UniProtKB/TrEMBL annotation:
Polar residues: compositionally biased ranges: 421-430
Signal sequence segment: 1-19
Subcellular location: Cell membrane
GO biological process, one term: negative regulation of cell population proliferation
SUPFAM superfamilies: Alkaline phosphatase-like
Top-level taxon of origin: Eukaryota
Membrane topology term: Single-pass type I membrane protein
A GO molecular-function descriptor: sphingomyelin phosphodiesterase activity
Hydrolase in keyword set: yes
Record's keyword terms, sorted: Cell membrane, Glycoprotein, Hydrolase, Lipid metabolism, Membrane, Metal-binding, Signal, Transmembrane, Transmembrane helix, Zinc
Protein's name in the database: Ectonucleotide pyrophosphatase/phosphodiesterase family member 7
Length: 430
């Protein structure tokens, strides 16, 4: 009976001395981050969600989570895996754009543009792999490119015509992720679902269609929890369910739409590059010498539109201080989208608004061996989730804007011994 622990102890000593992968040392827990795109913080209040409710009873629930500004899919998802505000991680929009060549690429194409994502920040997948772990990403934005030459251990990228609503496929994707944990021995996986965002856009957030999609999400949470149990992962896998942003109803038939082509003192002839018609946000690069003229024409053009010179944009948004941001940028009030040369926006629901607006708030649930049970915590910013995930994995985080102390009370105790020199506090100036 003494032979086994002595053998294990000897193997551990040898492994430590030879630089063996970190995840082979001790009882390190695995981590699954699941994102349901566009899941507003209160979507579970007008729909029966027994599985999300059970998860809250068995783990931790935040009253709500505040996403980063700008409340778009790619920027907010990258904040979760870097712990940085958007101006600091550089993925400032869902679309790749180049103000010199005038190239603008849609969301799905941008998912595969390496230089858009790999622009100085190292996401958690790469950090974990550099410290000996194995990671995977299933459809998660930013998980299908290399960072500083490093690719994820395993990854899947959604196709341009991907059907976000297919519940059968959702379960198959979960089955694949379970195999990644059990057969491929991955330590960290990020799993993305494009709902209820897609349904919220098409039908609006206050509709029966959205409510039915939330019930589908809830069934999927139940299937996921059953799968974790079935694969004997309950004692080793921490599960976090979150989202990127909320959703609000668009005032499509309002008498005071935000329409640039109707502003009397503005002309597109003064513009070198524009990024408009993407919800409630816009960026403009005026032609040489035209900045003040364009700004003066727009700053009071519409009471629902807020236009700023880059250097005057509210610092509290942590958004404008990045080289990718144009000299003029703007956002509109909740419910109002920005129409450029013509009106081309037809969504009934939209996001991208001020992250202080309650309809932009989103969800956070967590459970597993490291988390307390039946705990509801006060709201927090999504920028803190990265430090929590690094702590759960026992890896040293990259410099970031989050505080581990914000979310540490969710945990029973130290889930894993931190590596030598690991920081648990906010870097100076963040």
């Amino acid at each position: 009976h003494l032979a086994v622990p002595l053998t294990v102890a000897l193997a551990t000593l040898l492994a430590t001395g030879t630089g063996a992968p970190v995840h082979r040392q001790g009882n390190r827990h695995k981590l699954l981050l699941v994102s349901f795109d566009g899941f507003r913080w209160n979507y579970d209040q007008d729909v029966d969600t027994p599985h999300l409710d059970a998860m809250a009873r068995d783990g931790v629930k935040a009253r709500y989570m505040t996403p980063a500004f700008v409340t778009m899919t790619s920027p907010c998802h990258f904040t979760l895996v870097t712990g940085k505000y958007i101006e600091n991680h550089g993925v400032v929009h869902n679309m790749f754009y180049n103000t010199t060549t005038k190239v603008k690429l849609p969301y799905h194409a941008t998912l595969g543009i390496e230089r858009w994502w790999d622009n100085g920040s190292v996401p958690i997948w790469v950090t974990a792999q550099r410290q000996g772990l194995k990671t995977g990403s299933f459809f998660y934005p930013g998980g299908n490119v290399t960072y500083q030459g490093v690719a994820l251990t395993l990854s899947r990228k959604e196709g341009i015509l991907h059907n976000y609503k297919n519940e059968t496929e959702w379960r198959a994707n979960i089955d694949t992720v379970m195999l990644w944990f059990t057969e491929e021995d991955l330590d960290l996986v990020t799993l993305y679902f494009g709902e209820p965002d897609s349904t919220g856009h098409k039908y609006g957030p206050e509709t029966q269609e959205r409510k039915e999609m939330v019930q589908q999400v809830d069934r999927t949470v139940g299937y996921l929890r059953d799968s974790i149990e079935r694969n004997h992962l309950s004692s080793v896998l921490n599960l976090i369910i979150a989202s990127d942003h909320g959703m609000t109803t668009v005032y499509r038939n309002a008498s005071d739409l935000v329409e640039f082509h109707k502003f009397p003192n503005f002309t597109f002839r003064d513009i070198e590059f524009e990024l408009l018609d993407y919800g409630p946000n816009g960026m403009l690069l005026p032609k040489a010498g035209m900045l003040d003229k364009v700004y003066d024409a727009l700053k009071d053009a519409h009471p629902k539109l807020h236009v700023y010179k880059k250097e005057s944009f509210p610092a509290s948004f942590h958004y404008a201080n990045n080289p990718r941001i144009t000299p003029l940028l703007m956002y509109s009030d909740p419910g109002y989208v920005i129409n450029g040369r013509i009106n081309v926006q037809f969504n009934k629901g939209e996001h991208g608004f001020d992250n202080r607006d309650m309809n932009m708030k989103t969800i956070f649930r967590a459970m597993g061996p490291s988390f307390k049970s039946g705990l509801e915590v006060e709201p927090f910013e999504s920028v803190h989730v990265y430090e929590l995930m690094c702590h759960l994995l026992g890896i040293k985080p990259e410099p970031n804007d989050g505080h581990l102390s914000t979310l540490l009370p969710m945990l029973h105790s130290e889930p894993n011994p931190l590596p030598s020199g690991a920081s648990t506090h906010l870097p100076s100036g963040a």
